[in-house]
Amino acid sequence: MASAAGHAPTAGEYIIHHLQHLQVGKGFWTFNLDSIFWSLAMGVLGCWFLYSVARRVTSGVPGRMQAAVEFLVEMVDTQAKGIVHNAHSRKLVAPLALTVFVWIFLMNAMDLLPVDLIPWITERMGIPYQRVVPTADLSVTMALSIGVLLLCIYYNLKIKGAGGWLHELLSAPFGAKWYLAPFNLGMQLIEFVAKTVSHGMRLFGNMYAGELIFMLIALMGGAFFTAVGLPLAIGHIIAGSAWAIFHILIITLQAFVFMMLTLVYVGQAHDAH
Amino acid sequence: MEVISFVALAAGLIIGLGAIGACIGIGIMGSKYLESAARQPELMGELQTKMFLLAGLIDAAFIIGTGIALWFATANPFLGQIANLPK
Fold it and tell me: Fewer CB within 10 Å, N- or C-terminus of chain A?
């Protein structure tokens, strides 16, 4: 992790270096190659894992893997049944929720790898910047939440029809009076924007803060070759373990929250006011 | 120098005030959950799911604040702006 000036990096330089994406393009068309690569890799891993379990599924005594996946599928299915009361759309929405949960969980779980492990390896391969947690990238989380928004619009149009949805947009929170229509429409638009932004920002904020705290803890261990190095290194091990254990809760919880909110928003698109 | 000290104060306030709010929220919700679980133990599993969902929602604002505060504290973005100011 030598900086350009040749000296060992200061704390600020270390953090800034770690918060830099591997980017190509400029302006609006900037691609964060590391986020794209790791999110696709985690998607492929999740699909392969579920597929390999589903292929060896047995109706006899299930193995441990099968039991775990069955538990997961059943959990998502129960939640979907409780929130989306339309058996036909559940054929799409329940697998969607399972995908979202598994994918986001795996992407979040990249946080549990040592912060310097993969950047160190890629630096040896000549790649200067690498951020391995795709959900700590605002582009990825907002893309996910905008995907959910598009699905909500699709189901609004499909269930209520264009006329029905337009009527709801103009009459929903305050009542169907012609002079209230602009306020109703304004409220509805604000609601859609706020839902989408908070949906993506929540996941991003949690993962970004978690990643940053892992980096700060890594800085403690990085000060090993100084006068106060030994206590700091011991503190690194204790704080790192504690935060990693707590983070297992956070990554699962955030994946679960994202899945539940996806179901709730799609469920709202099915309810007529 | 002034900028550094103000940003340090701001980071402390962001984390501290956020923590107060999130802790009070989680505390109220946890006590209500225990109360309702004591009254109707058969609803415990169902309520637990909802409690964790809400815990994730309440926590989020605080953790986003913490992330921003730590970002300010370690890689202060305002210092760069000062360097670019016309003298």
Answer: C
Best interface-test mutation with A: which of B49, B63, B71 has the largest number of A CBs within 10 A?
Answer: B63
pLDDT (tens, 9 = 90+) of chain B, 87 residues, equals 788 888 889 999 999 999 999 999 999 999 999 999 999 999 888 888 888 888 888 888 888 888 788 888 877 778 777 777 776
Using CA atoms, how far apart are residues A208 and A212, in angstroms rounded to an integer? 6
Residue of B nearest to A255 (CA): B56
CA–CA dist A112, A104 (Å, integer)? 14
Q: Do A209 and B67 touch (CB under 8 A)?
A: yes
Catalytic, out of B59, B66, B68, B72: B59
Q: How many domains would you assign to chain B?
A: 1
Q: What is the CATH number of the domain that holds B22?
A: 1.20.20.10
User: What is the ipTM, given to two decimal places?
Assistant: 0.72
